[in-house]
Each structure stands twice: as C-alpha cells, then as structure tokens.
Design brief:
Blueprint: H1 3-11, H2 21-52, H3 56-105
Helix pairs in contact: 2-3
Length: about 110
C-alpha cells in the first residue's frame, strides 16, 4: 500500500488507532513560516510605502518591526505545535512501556 493510500485510510480510521497529526505537523510548521514571511514582506512593503509618502517614522518603525514580527510569529507557531508532538511521543512511549510490562508478566 502506498503512502498516499495509507494516509487516506488512516484519515478515515474511525477507531483512531492510527494518528495523522504527527505526519502533518511539519507541513503546518512550513505553512506557518511561509505565511509569517508573507506577512513580514507585506509589513516591509508598507514601511517602504510609508517612507515614500512622507511618513518617515511610521515607515522606519515598520521596517524595523517586520523581522521582529516574523521571528515572534515563527516562535509562536513552533511553541504551539511542540506540545502536540510531545503528547504523541508520550503516547508512543507509554504504549511501548505497557507492551514491555505485559511481556514481563507472562511466564
């Protein structure tokens, strides 16, 4: 079975025995970085536009804050996604511990 077929079969698994979230978290992080970058570029464009239109202080503030806003958004996205993957790793390690404990009980 190909990865694509397995993804869709896991997506519609009503017993939730397979998780798709760990597989898409990287994609969500990349999308977050892209949208943060687009937002920062928009901020830069508005800063240059403000400088050209004579609002020097607002333009300079926009130019200075654009990279800072980008960095803060990327940090926020990362900090938001990390607890999800931590939860899945805890579940995986707990399942392994339960399997190992069960094998020790059997004579």
């Amino acid at each position: 079975m190909s990865k694509r077929q397995r993804f869709f079969s896991d997506l519609f698994d009503l017993s939730f025995s397979k998780y798709i979230t760990p597989r898409i978290l990287g994609l969500l992080y990349i999308l977050g970085i892209i949208f943060s970058g687009l937002y920062a570029l928009t901020f830069l464009f508005l800063g240059f536009s403000a400088i050209i239109s004579g609002e020097t202080l607002a333009g300079v503030l926009a130019l200075i804050s654009a990279p800072l806003v980008f960095l803060l958004y990327v940090i926020f996205i990362r900090v938001t996604l990390e607890p999800m993957i931590i939860g899945f790793r805890i579940e995986q390690n707990t399942a392994r511990t339960a399997d190992n404990t069960e094998s020790l009980r059997q004579p």
